[in-house]
Amino acid sequence: xxxxxxxxxxxxxxxxxxxxxxxxxxxxxxxxxxxxxxxxxxxxxxxxxxxxxxxxxxxxxxxxxxxxxxxxxxxxxxxxxxxxxxxxxxxxxxxxxxxx
Length: 100
Fold this sequence. Notes:
With 100 residues, the chain is α/β, with parallel strands linked by helices.
């Protein structure tokens, strides 16, 4: 995975322009399912937080049903700074938060 600071350096190919920024998804099966859904719905890629994400593993690969190999994955060190930087560079940033 490539470490990034904001999206404008990443979006190079054609796509929807939709990137999912995921923070605190620790379960590899859930992360695999989200990546699978992102690929199915045509997202350009997924950005994960380096310290608050399930590690890449066989479980994640299996639950993504192969879409992990086809989806652009990027890694950021601080999700809030990443979102602020991407918003300043012109991306529309929205959020959805679930309570535990």
